């Protein structure tokens, strides 16, 4: 069987990493790239370089990775669907819910595979966390908290911190817990003099009454990427910067000192940091999408899931403006 013919549009900071992985995975040939701004990082390396998606489609491709700015996702994605080409589209899926739904419909109508590049889903710590939650190791889930903070990346110009960064946490929260967002409340701040928000604090409700809290900003001088799940048997902490997963168990030692025992519901127990394999998340994402295109079982972030993420993002923005909980069911 011949290799899949892949193309890449968008050769910026993220595009170059997509190119590296497309060139490395088995069963795929990166045959052409495209970017209206040229090739600033030398990604093409002898491959045909086109200025737009129309030129890229002339190469007879099986699928395309879209790493162009969010504002162009709808236009590019609709052209790929019309041409019958599968697509892996970087997150967020689109700039608006309406645009995201158009992409969902276009790919569904053509029977094409479409996926969204929510790379955190493929982080080894979160994949191990989902497996352990599914196995019931935490028992009943009470709360999931995410913290995604760090300096502003000057390359992001067309969306705020909610759609660029909080979108990661929205997807991973729903995926790790296998719950759906129902209610969304948020507060935002604008401190960097840009059109879009650079800080958000959100409190949400997921199915089954699960509470989630998300703190995301571009205003912190050091990077933090944590996912914390608290439940009946203790707490999991996933650090996606280091791909480490740690479990903090509730204590099993009886407190016999009455003056202390009466104030304690949960006590400190054993702490375990799991030794897990740590493949590159982007590599796993590409291999998973390749398998989906080949018709193999693959846990891709579907366009429908990507559209739901955009809906929750917009609910956060609306909540901050209206001071109301927003129902996203």
From TrEMBL:
Residues 5-118 form the Gfo/Idh/MocA-like oxidoreductase N-terminal domain. It comes from Arachnia propionica. Residues 127-236 form the GFO/IDH/MocA-like oxidoreductase domain. It comes from the Bacteria. GO terms for molecular function: nucleotide binding. SUPFAM superfamilies: Glyceraldehyde-3-phosphate dehydrogenase-like, C-terminal domain, NAD(P)-binding Rossmann-fold domains. This is Gfo/Idh/MocA family oxidoreductase. InterPro entries: Gfo/Idh/MocA-like_OxRdtase_N, Gfo/Idh/MocA_Oxidoreductases, GFO_IDH_MocA-like_dom, NAD(P)-bd_dom_sf.
């Amino acid at each position: 069987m011949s290799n899949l013919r892949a193309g890449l549009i968008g050769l910026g900071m993220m595009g170059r990493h997509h190119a590296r992985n497309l060139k490395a995975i088995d069963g795929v040939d990166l045959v052409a790239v495209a970017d209206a701004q040229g090739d600033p990082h030398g990604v093409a390396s002898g491959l045909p370089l086109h200025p737009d998606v129309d030129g890229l489609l002339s190469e007879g491709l099986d699928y395309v990775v879209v790493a162009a700015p969010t504002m162009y996702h709808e236009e590019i994605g609709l052209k790929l669907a019309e041409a019958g080409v599968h697509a892996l589209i970087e997150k967020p899926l689109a700039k608006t819910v309406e645009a995201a739904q158009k992409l969902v419909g276009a790919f569904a109508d053509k029977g094409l595979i479409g996926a969204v590049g929510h790379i955190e889903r493929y982080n080894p710590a979160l994949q191990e966390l989902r497996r352990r939650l599914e196995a019931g190791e935490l028992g009943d889930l009470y709360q999931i908290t995410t913290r995604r903070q760090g300096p502003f990346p000057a390359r992001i110009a067309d969306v705020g911190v909610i759609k660029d960064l909080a979108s990661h946490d929205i997807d991973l929260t729903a995926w790790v817990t296998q719950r759906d967002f129902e209610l969304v409340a948020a507060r935002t701040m604008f401190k960097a003099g840009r059109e879009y928000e650079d800080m958000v604090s959100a409190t949400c409700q997921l199915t089954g009454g699960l509470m989630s809290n998300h703190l995301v900003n571009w205003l912190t001088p050091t990077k933090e990427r944590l996912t914390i799940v608290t439940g009946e048997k203790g707490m999991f902490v996933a650090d996606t910067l280091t791909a480490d997963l740690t479990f903090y168990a509730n204590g099993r030692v009886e407190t016999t000192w009455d003056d202390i025992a009466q104030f304690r519901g949960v006590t400190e127990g054993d702490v375990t940091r799991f030794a897990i394999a740590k493949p590159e998340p982007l590599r796993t994402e590409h291999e998973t999408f390749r398998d989906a295109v080949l018709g193999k079982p693959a846990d891709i972030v579907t366009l429908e899931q990507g559209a739901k993420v955009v809906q929750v993002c917009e609910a956060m923005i609306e909540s901050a403006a209206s001071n109301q909980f927003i129902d996203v069911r």
